[in-house]
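@channel sequence for tomorrow's demo:
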Amino acid sequence: MIFFHALLMFCAAALASDAVSTKAARQVCRVGSFELPCSAAAAFPLFSPECERAWVKGWNPRPLFPDTIEFRRDTVFREGEGAGEAIWTIVDVDERALRAEYVRVAPASHTAHIVVKVEAVDTNRSHVTVSYTVTAFGDHAAALLEAFSEEAYAAKMRNWRRNISAYLETSYLEKCRSDRPR
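structure tokens (generated this afternoon):
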């Protein structure tokens, strides 16, 4: 598995080398976590490409392989537009361990290795840990890594918690409304 990651990162850098300056690449690793007001089994699918549409504004993954986006190993999809477009590969999905791993390649600017792990706190609460390893290269590497400063990453995790919690609350209220007798 480690070889696969290294190979992906090397390929992305090699592909990008013709398109960007020869400035040295820089890498940063961040880990953040937060709790959600739902079971771990309910939380885990929220980190699949399709379910993220529900809580990430503007998230619009498009399948490359297979023809639909499946939450399984070796699914490849595009997300973003123009210079922000990236190709994502699901490296692993372990539904027993509630763990998903992705590699994101934006050929003009960076690669990222993302791991999401969900654990039960109790029957109605879960703990989510998200790690990002970002390798930035090219003329805008410093600006890109600024978006992954410790402060910025902590804010990102707070936003994820807020957005997912709001989605869960809205979904719960909609379900309650649909379950009421008329």
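heads up for whoever presents: Strands lie at 26-36, 62-65, 76-79, 86-94, 99-106, 110-122, 125-136.
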